[in-house]
Specification:
The complex is a heterodimer of chains A (560) and B (342).
Chain A: H1 2-5, H2 31-56, H3 60-68, H4 71-102, H5 108-116, H6 123-134, H7 139-148, H8 161-186, H9 190-197, H10 202-231, H11 234-238, H12 244-254, H13 259-284, H14 307-338, H15 340-349, H16 351-385, H17 389-397, H18 406-420, H19 428-453, H20 456-464, H21 469-498, H22 501-506, H23 514-523, H24 527-550
Helix pairs in contact in A: 2-13, 2-16, 2-18, 4-8, 4-10, 6-8, 6-14, 8-10, 9-10, 10-13, 12-13, 12-18, 14-24, 15-16, 16-17, 16-19, 16-21, 18-19, 19-21, 20-21, 21-24, 23-24
Chain B: H1 2-18, H2 26-31, E1 35-39, H3 43-57, E2 61-65, H4 68-77, E3 86-89, H5 92-100, E4 104-105, H6 110-113, E5 127-139, E6 164-167, H7 172-185, H8 187-200, E7 201-205, H9 208-216, E8 222-226, H10 227-235, E9 240-243, E10 254-264, H11 270-280, H12 283-293, E11 296-297, E12 316-317, H13 326-338
Parallel strand pairs in B: 1-2, 1-3, 6-7, 6-8, 10-12
Antiparallel strand pairs in B: 3-10, 4-10, 5-8, 5-9, 5-10, 5-11
Helix pairs in contact in B: 3-12, 5-13, 7-8, 7-13, 9-10
Chain lengths: 560, 342
């Protein structure tokens, strides 16, 4: 088991392996494997190309209208929000990781998972809470203003860009926190101690030694945050901010012309590409070699007079990202029992729909997760066992969903099913395809990471003892990579469970998942009605999240 | 040891995948003969009538709600193999567009004949259910009644800059309203008005609930809504007032938008669909809409809810609903987008 617990966290393995220019470097894969992989790659790549083609086919007059209807502002909003949220999440995430892992604060055992727990709260649920609390004439402002006899106290309310920035930051920092705290636990202290012994202060050591060592993990975390912000629909539209994702959504739902949505999607994809390339380029510049054999546990840095600020920092983060949403949602849920209209609506009329929605959510998430694990396996195997241009480009293309915002994937599904799969248009299978393309990278990376750890000599040995190929896979490979499969499964399950925009756009009649229940009620401004579904979603999400955290697949519980 | 835990997790996960699809999936429903309803109206507003119909007829209804354009796109694409039986939409141009494309099939019965001919398609492929008026609502703590704008045109005046809440262009009633304005004012004047309105909008909400709540809590002093949103907000105890616009002598009157229903051509459950359409025209269903949502019934003799003035007492912009074509709508939308309406 030692080999596995030292594994890199799955989310860290690179989505873009270095390209080798030869088609095959070493042995070739069997035709059967290649054919299976070819079909999978083709199916995931078609949507991408289709969008690009549609975006290129958009007429100049449509581009003009899109430009006139606010493209420059949209662009500035999207880029600005992505950059600021990523920076904030990075600062908070690294700060928390450093305090928990490197200082003598204590409480590491419960702080580690607790600080990652906000991942169970979808940002749109957080946005519902905060718009109610600190939106314009929200609870805070209205109460205080009425008390003081004023009408508005503008600086007490947050809406638009600042609100989106705040909400997205406090619910995405765990991505950075998880990856950097795992890296901190893994990394060798000797560099930092050497710097200390040369007389540098703790701050200087942090900025000149620790931070550069954390660069790859930080980069991967920022990548996740940045791509998330590009893809977010719920939180930005609840806070009345417009980004490409929400603009595409409204273009799709409010107009009859899809050309505009395709054009916006094209621009959005370019942005995602820029983020991916930036992350990759900065990563390549690093060259730090750590010698494992000299590894020793870190000595804790005494906090001294910084203890209070550190505690406050952690406390505030937890209150904002966990405490307030939990209290408010529970309050609304309880309030629902005393409010006659809500009682009728929620518990007499739709209590059944709450249970049914939970069941639909679980069902579709499980199906998507299993499909993603199954579809990912051949590609991960090809990538893990063969070298060359062909395996790596297959691996790369299968991960387009990583860079495609959910609304763009949904749009491509609408195009493709409309053109070639009419009978399945508007069915749950179309939705499932969207989930699969969007979340395949998550299962793929988990599977690839675990296959790469297992030496192929085990399989060779089994073959030399007369086992057939499929027996080798069943008896040797699958049992060994099972933890990786479960990790990939849980990741996709978790992501599908909370998915909102693609579900909104593609769900068939009556297929209301938990996020849809939450959204429909919040959209009508009746927060009491969305609270029970939101609590339920958080509770259900906590299970796969706990599984991932406790087994170290998100890098949190891993002990050196 | 650890691998056992993994399998304990994986096995139930895989089993969950193998169980049949949950009930409520369209595949399951199509088989048991439920009526499939596409509704541009919100679930909450459809539910009372749907429940009442289900109870009375014993026919189950599966509802898909969404914005009108999403559903229209869907209906157009499903034309060769329709999934929906009935379509409920919120304004005439969209229904006319579907009539033009023959997506909706004509239907005539004793029940529909009772509805005045001004409230239906020329070819009888859709029929009105209720009508609503476009009104101005204001926050009474921020504005006195005589300070509030009295005409729709006033909303474009610079003095309201940042003080008005409106809905997105994607909203059906907004689209219906602007299409009527486009037809009655002409492109030049309509363009000027929309430019002014877009510039004055302090916030653009997805729907009218957002608008009415923002005006109700005092974030904005004025909102452009359908009349019943005022009554809903008032019922919630907010300090709001209503202006029926353009009521002065010689003025054009409040713009009306109609909600209508049509049966989909080739509907899988045509009989059930007819029963449902007939049911919507009964005094009982009309009364449900009047009472729960303060709308104006189309069936003569059904009273509007308490506090809602009878339609006859108001000056109404009488542009015929059946004349708002899909092309008018497209032209309006292009214009609106060009002046930067969201």
């Amino acid at each position: 088991m030692a080999g596995i617990s030292e594994a890199q966290p799955t989310t860290r393995s690179s989505p873009f392996p270095a390209l080798n220019l030869r088609l095959w470097d070493g042995p070739r894969a069997s035709t059967a494997l290649l054919a299976v992989c070819g079909v999978i790659v083709a199916l995931t790549a078609i949507p991408l190309f289709y969008i690009v083609i549609r975006a290129m086919g958009v007429t100049a007059s449509t581009w003009k209208i899109i430009y006139l209807s606010g493209m420059p502002g949209l662009f500035a909003n999207t880029v600005g929000l992505t950059a600021t949220v990523t920076a904030m999440a990075a600062a908070v995430g690294v700060g928390l990781a450093y305090i928990v892992e490197r200082t003598d604060l204590g409480g590491v055992g419960w702080l580690r998972p607790l600080l990652a727990a906000p991942l169970a709260v979808p940002p749109y649920v957080g946005a519902i809470c905060y718009v109610y609390l600190i939106g314009p004439r929200g609870l805070l402002e209205a109460t205080l203003a009425d008390f003081l006899g004023l009408h508005r106290i503008p600086f007490l309310s947050l809406i638009g860009f600042p609100a989106a920035f705040f909400v997205l930051s406090i619910f995405t920092y765990p991505y950075v926190y998880l990856l950097t705290s795992a890296a901190l636990r893994r990394s060798d202290r000797s560099f930092e101690e050497a710097a200390h012994s040369l007389g540098l202060s703790s701050w200087r050591v942090f900025f000149t030694v620790t931070l550069p060592l954390l660069r790859p993990a930080l980069g991967a975390g920022c990548l996740l945050v940045g791509l998330y912000v590009l893809s977010d629909f719920g939180a930005v539209s609840l806070t009345r901010t417009e980004t490409f994702s929400s603009a595409i959504y409204f273009q799709l739902t409010g107009r009859f012309d899809r050309a505009g949505a395709a054009a916006l999607s094209g621009v959005n994809m370019l942005l995602a590409l820029v983020i991916l390339i930036t992350e990759r380029r900065t990563r390549q510049r690093r060259s730090v070699v750590q010698v494992r054999s000299q590894w020793k546990p870190a000595e804790k840095i005494p906090l001294g007079r910084w203890r209070l600020p550190a505690c406050a920092f952690i406390g505030i983060t937890l209150v904002l990202s966990l405490g307030i949403p939990a209290i408010l949602l529970s309050f609304w849920t309880i309030q629902g029992f005393f409010d006659q209209a809500a009682m009728l609506e929620l518990w007499r009329i739709s209590a059944g729909s709450l249970i049914l929605s939970t069941w639909k959510s679980l069902w579709v998430s499980a199906l998507a997760a299993t499909a993603a694990v199954a579809v990912g396996l051949p590609i991960a195997f090809l990538m893990g066992r063969y070298r060359g241009l062909l395996p790596s480009s297959f691996y790369l293309i299968a991960q387009v969903g990583y860079a495609l915002p959910a609304v763009v994937v949904a749009l491509s599904m609408i195009f493709i099913f409309h053109a070639w799969a009419g009978p399945f248009y508007g069915t749950v299978w179309m939705l499932l395809c969207a989930y699969l393309i969007r979340f395949l990278p998550q299962s793929l990376q988990a599977e690839h990471a675990s296959i790469a750890q297992i030496s192929s000599s085990l399989e060779d040995a089994a073959r030399s003892l007369g086992r057939k190929n499929w027996e080798v896979v069943r008896e040797i490979l699958l049992p060994l990579i099972a933890p990786g499969l479960l990790a990939g499964w849980s990741l996709v399950f978790l992501s599908t469970l909370r998915e909102l925009p693609a579900t909104l756009l593609l769900r068939p009649a009556g297929f209301d998942t938990l996020p849809i229940l939450i959204w429909t009620a919040a959209d009508e401004g009746v927060y009491i009605h969305s609270a029970p579904a939101a609590l339920l979603l958080i509770a259900v999400s906590a299970v796969p999240l706990y599984l991932l955290l406790s087994r170290g697949h998100l890098g949190a519980a891993e002990k050196p | 040891m650890r691998n056992h835990v993994v399998w304990l997790g994986l096995i139930p996960a895989l089993l969950l995948t193998l169980v049949p699809a949950p009930k409520g999936l369209p595949e399951a429903d199509a088989a048991d003969g439920s009526l499939v309803l596409y509704s541009g109206r919100k679930q909450k507003l459809m539910r009372p009538v749907v429940r009442a119909f289900e109870k009375k007829s014993g026919i189950k209804i599966v509802m898909r709600t969404g914005t009108a354009s999403t559903l229209v796109n869907l209906l157009m694409e499903e034309r060769s193999a329709p999934r929906a039986d009935v379509f409920v939409a919120l304004y005439a141009p969209i229904l006319n567009r579907l009539s033009e494309a023959k997506v909706l099939a004509p239907y005539r019965s004793g029940a529909t004949d009772k509805i005045p001919s001004t409230f239906r398609a020329k070819d009888r492929s859709w029929i009105g259910v209720t009508t609503r008026l476009r009104v101005i609502m204001y926050n009474t703590k921020l504005l006195k009644r005589d300070e509030a704008p009295k005409t729709i045109a006033e909303l474009a005046h610079p003095k309201w800059k940042g003080k008005i809440a409106i809905t997105r262009l994607g909203n059906s009633s907004m689209q219906g309203h602007l299409t009527v304005l486009y037809k009655t004012l002409g492109p030049q004047t309509a363009r000027k008005f929309m430019r002014g309105l877009a510039a004055n909008a302090g916030a653009v909400f997805k729907g009218h609930t957002g608008v009415r709540k923002a005006v109700g809590r005092g974030e904005f002093s004025v909102g452009l809504v359908n009349h019943y949103y005022y009554f809903l907000e008032k019922a919630g105890g907010s300090p709001v007032g209503i202006i029926y616009p353009d009521q002065g002598k010689g003025q054009s009157g409040a713009v009306m938008t109609i909600t209508g229903v049509g049966i989909v051509s080739g509907a899988p459950h045509r009989k059930a669909a007819e029963l449902f359409v007939d049911y919507l025209m009964t005094p009982r269903a009309q009364q449900i809409y009047a009472d729960t949502n303060y709308e104006f019934p189309v069936l003569p003799g059904v009273k509007s809810a308490r506090g809602v003035p009878p339609l006859e007492s108001l000056r109404i912009n009488n542009y015929p609903q059946g004349d708002l074509s899909g092309a008018d709508f497209d032209a309006m939308l292009r214009l609106a987008q060009q002046v930067g309406m969201k």
